[in-house]
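Thread amino acids onto this structure.
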């Protein structure tokens, strides 16, 4: 892969946007590499139990690379979104493991959408978020119009999208878009990886928790109660539940295996 890097550090899949010359703006090659990386991350043989997504250099992801010659289709095209971006976003949603995003600089356009896919969103004070689409006459995409109002509220989401103003990491933290804020990129890398490792060593039920919260955005209350019951049946049948109960009774830390 040229435009993404993927390393398995213990039980954490460390995935990085890797085109720092353009602040990790997304082009066709990066989309292809991202899809390849997703297959490897989802392969049980690689042992990943948490995904950590960040960017190489000074930026997280500056959105689409409008000068890229390898775009599969024109960036503003709905068909281009459906064929290239949507499978990646749906794949991230359906991952059977927690996801941590570490925003180390600009998260603009669809880059902001990828940042918001994290279950735990971390950022350094050097970072900022930008719904840049209106600046070039486009509509927010990458699921931004779904996730943003749910994270920061309707009014703030519309304001960010229509005025296309920068949102600092500190304000994003105050608004609830960012879970954990770090002083600089070095502290971000250390702190976000610590969280990723904690999740990677957690129980199998973390994947079920993730599934439950994604579904709560469209389920009725009765449907959510039923989903909780079905997921609880799966969790209670896992080896990690048995280990958790044993550890509690024996007054020791549990040793979860993700099984």
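Threaded sequence (259 positions):
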């Amino acid at each position: 892969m040229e435009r993404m890097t993927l390393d398995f550090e213990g039980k954490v899949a460390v995935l990085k946007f890797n085109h720092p010359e353009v602040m990790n703006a997304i082009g066709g090659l990066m989309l292809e590499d991202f899809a390849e990386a997703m297959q490897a991350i989802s392969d049980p043989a690689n042992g990943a139990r948490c995904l950590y997504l960040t960017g190489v250099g000074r930026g997280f992801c500056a959105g689409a690379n409008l000068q890229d010659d390898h775009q599969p289709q024109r960036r503003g095209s709905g068909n281009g979104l459906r064929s290239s971006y949507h499978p990646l976003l749906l794949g991230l949603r359906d991952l059977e493991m927690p996801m941590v995003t570490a925003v180390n600089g600009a998260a603009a356009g669809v880059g902001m959408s990828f940042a918001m896919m994290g279950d735990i969103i971390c950022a350094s004070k050097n970072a900022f978020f930008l719904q840049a689409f209106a600046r070039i006459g486009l509509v927010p995409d990458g699921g931004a119009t779904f996730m943003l109002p749910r994270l920061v509220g309707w009014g703030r989401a519309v304001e960010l999208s229509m005025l296309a103003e920068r949102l600092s990491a500190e304000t994003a933290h105050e608004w609830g878009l960012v879970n954990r804020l770090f002083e600089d990129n070095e502290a971000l890398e250390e702190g976000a990886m610590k969280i990723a490792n904690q999740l990677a060593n957690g129980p199998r039920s973390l994947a079920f928790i993730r599934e439950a919260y994604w579904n709560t955005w469209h389920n009725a209350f009765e449907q959510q109660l039923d989903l909780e019951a079905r997921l609880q049946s799966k969790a209670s049948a896992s080896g990690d539940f048995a280990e958790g109960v044993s550890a509690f009774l024996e007054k020791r830390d549990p040793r979860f295996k993700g099984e």
